[in-house]
Amino acid sequence: MEKTDVIVAGGGPIGLYLAGLLEKSGLSIRGLEEHKGIGRPNHCSGLVSRNLDRFVKPRKEWIEHEVSGAVFRAGPSSVRVGKPGKAAYVIDRSRLDAFLADGLESAIELDVRVEGVAQGEEGDARKEGASHLPIAVKTNKGIFKAQMLLGCDGANSLVARHFGARPKKLLMGVIAITVEGNCSENVEIFLDKKAAKDGFFWKIPRGLTTEYGLFSSNADFLELENFFKIKPSERRAGLIPVGPGKTCFQRTLLVGDAAGMSKPWSGGGLIYGLTAARIAARTVIDAFQEGDFSEGFLARYERGWKRAFGRQIQAGMLGRKVFESSGNFEIGMGLRFLRAFSPLLNGLDMDFLVR
Length: 355
Ligand SMILES: Cc1cc2nc3c(=O)[nH]c(=O)nc-3n(C[C@H](O)[C@H](O)[C@H](O)COP(=O)(O)OP(=O)(O)OC[C@H]3O[C@@H](n4cnc5c(N)ncnc54)[C@H](O)[C@@H]3O)c2cc1C
Description:
By secondary structure, the protein is an alpha/beta fold. The protein has helices spanning 13-24, 93-102, 158-162, 221-228, 270-290, 295-324, 328-340, 342-345; strands at residues 6-9, 29-32, 47-49, 63-67, 69-74, 77-82, 88-91, 108-109, 114-119, 135-139, 142-146, 148-151, 169-178, 186-190, 200-205, 210-216, 234-242, 248-249, 252-254. Helix 1 packs parallel to helix 2. The longest helix has 30 residues, at 295-324. The relative contact order is 0.17. Bound molecules: flavin-adenine dinucleotide.
């Protein structure tokens, strides 16, 4: 392979989307994905607001269902928040990933696991004054060098670990699918602090099937299946990072789940990750134009994503703190309070709740 400008570690939706943006600007990309296929295993519910259209217009074949609202339940209390039209897609996430990969000219190299990061032969990438040296990644298939490294390698990011950047929390998401057809217009969220102390259960209508899920620090399948009394035909699980740490380093950016860019209240990470990918692409293109890969120059990326959705994450972390310290009684009261204001809540953007 010829010289590489940028290594993208991780062939998930964020790495693939970012690779596509960079490719269009003429940079040469080397995408590395540890699995043997794109989009598999699929850990994600694929519930995503219509803000997705700003990045990728979903094809009809990937849309399993569309919903217009969510019903929040806590014991006997409930409140519905929704929109007059359709608010969110329920997509087959693996098809989104496959679509993004198919649109790339440079093939993503599969079955290549990033195992380490170094600054050329000179040692540590964090070493001051070494910005003229390319960055190198060690993989199971050899060492690859480039001018920049983009860590898009998900919640357990090895690139983030190398730089000592970890999300504030790492929660678990488990999913169980049953073969009940379900075309409800609402997603349902079940709050029960005894069963999920720092998260919630959900039920998502997927058209031909129904998805049940649990998001919490100690989520497991048994708890999920007991809560809903279901016998699933399929089970999936994955980690969900909450609360980003530092996201820019010399020659390196962290983007998407690798950077902990999910909504702290729901764990959804697609819209923030795609938003950050756009800002990262602009920063990388500017860095190549200026020939400056220093952490100081790349800090414009971190300022950019914080301007775009930093306030949402801050408010979400605060909301999560209040939620974690509340019991079922307070949660029930909270829902009754929200119910009084539900006309104001209807129409809110599910990704950008605070102004
Ligand atoms: C149960 C569950 C349900 C979810 N539901 C939703 C939802 O409904 N809506 C929503 O918006 N978000 C949801 N999310 C979150 C969403 O899946 C993530 O935010 C999104 O996948 C982030 O994309 P990414 O590309 O940053 O990371 P990932 O999708 O995790 O992709 C990272 C890629 O990097 C690869 N990789 C990892 N380590 C290495 C390595 N060392 N070397 C090479 N490759 C590597 C992985 O194999 C993977 O392909 C859910 C998450 C979970 C766990």
